[in-house]
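User: Here's a chain of 712 residues. Predict its fold as tokens.
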Amino acid sequence: MKKTRMTTMKMKTTAKTTIKKKSLKTKQRDSSLPAKRVAQSDMKKTETRVEIKPAKGRPMLTWVGKKPLRYATAYPAQLVETFNAHVRASHDSPLQKTWTDWPKDIPQTGLLFHGDNKDVLAYLLANGFRGKVKLIYIDPPFDSGADYVRKVNLRGGASKANFDSEGYALGEQVQYTDIWTNDNYLQFIYERLLLAKELLTEDGSIWLHCDPNRSHYLKVLIDELFGSDQFVNEIIWKRSGSKGLTSSQFPDAHDAILYYSKDRNVHQWQRVRGTYTEEHLEKFRYVEEGTERKYMMDNLQNPNPNRPNLTYDWNGHVRCWRWTRERMREMHDAGKIAYSQNGMPYFKRYLDKLEGPTLTDTWDDISPINSQAIEREGYPTQKPEEVIARVLAAASIQGDVVLDFFLGSGTTAAVAQKLGRRWIGADINKGAIQTTTKRLQGVIQEQVENAKSKTPALPGMEDEETPAPAQLSFSVYRVNDYDLQIQHNETFNLAVEHLGMTRTKTDAFFDGTLGKKLVKIVPFNHPVTPLDLEEVKKELNNRPDEERDIVMVGLGKEVAVAAWLDEWNKLRKQGNIPNKIEVIELRSDPKYGGFFTHESAKAKISFKRGKDNVEITIDDFISPTILERLKQQNKDNPLFQPQINDWRSMVDSVMIDSSYDGKVFNITQADVPEKKNDLVEGKYEVEAKKGATVAVKVTDMLGEEVLVTKQI
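Assistant: Prediction complete.
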């Protein structure tokens, strides 16, 4: 079965680590808590208020609506899925040694959280992670005013049936919306950084990836939270080359990474080296007789010629040299000096001793992810693994805890896994969780295979041992009961298109306009309620000059909404009072209804009991959502409706739990095709005890999951 490959990265670190640490008083644990027990204990917890220390740094940034965060509410987290490579760790393995500081009620695995990261950060603070995170890297929204989407295509053989031979494209799927007013954006980041600071160790650091449009605001904001004296670096990453001339400015070509410590007096940092260019390596063209070592001839003349004590004749050449005459004689006798044809001395700089150039705060040697990159996940704003690897190498060591609460495609977690760090990731988007889960399974499986075959170190780290993984498993949690079945962003985008709305990207409350009317789309996880209408009323009170009528959009509405609307619109029938409000029900409205009649995906699966194993066959799978998308895309060509000849083209992955308890899905076997055009196998064999419940989770290309269970 083909699995996702582990992408390599180019980086070097010096063997010696410059580090000052404060001792941590910790409680020793013998083993990790079983995942199922954690899930049960978590569900018993009630909401908790977490106290947050106020910001005391200077200067202080001011914006409309700025509110200090004195406390945060920590909600319970529900364990929904686990993955374990099922490899038994030896007693002397780092797997057993790095968890003594870990909260006792949390499984000793990587942690992946689905939910609002503010809720996730509060949960971590309330459950023993205060002061436990060594490094935080985040790549938050840039306030770009854009919807970030990923292009979705069907897998493999489906393209053969398409009449234009271009493959089946399912269009774009909104992953997150980066549309803010400036004040809301700053408050959003401010609250999360206040919480994040509480999680850092005293020698920890935070790295915030941003672009030039908001970096100046964010720098002042972090100065306020951490103190301006904790600023370490502003890293400039040249993410692209020239985009050609523009009419009014130089082309944008870089991002910034703001690097702050928790305490500059003790913060952890080690020197990181880059990699030399091929042009530089070609200078090592000489070969030493006897040893066959390659070397280059390096200049021995002193850059400062006014050094009388270093000016002397050597081999017929009077120069100001780098070394004293005694040192020159010593190096000559040791065979470390080579001579040109005219007798000029040069220092032999050996290729096998080359450490790599010292990096500065300008990184122009890492290219962005191109369309052919192995690590590419098709996720918007995905960053190269080498950028994250360099950050982790500079400010953390093996076994440290790394946190990314804007996880996206999971790059930080994947790199942390490869470099032997413990990791915690969070994202509110379901697609991000699914992408990260698949990616991490591939990384861990390859680490297991590499351990068996004793493969060489990662490229760029040949002089060092391959880092041992800190864990070979991870746990997926849901915080504050987020719905994993429907992606709101996806449905929201389709609703805008269905209604013919015009999106308004500068309005923090209303979502757009329909003709001359303002539109507010209510979240699709509940019908329109009087509380939603009261929010609109409150917003209109803050806009006394607003005279446009309002359209509320939802899947349905509560009975009490009709009475509220009658009362509100009664005074507006004469036309002299503005802001009439109407409600469009997408499920039943005569004009717009029929949009959201969601029919769930279905799978037909056979289970056959053997002596010790169970044979599982996926006989058929259908995703009405995918079929409807294809139909809508070809509605102008009814004679050329696409046909799907192989159900596997609609399937992104298959996961199996051979002993499902009805609560937590423990992945015992996974089918994650390595390439985008590969298909899942569809037939599997797993070990299962008699009477156990076997569960099969099938995920389609749009992220919808189907769970089929069978007691064997």
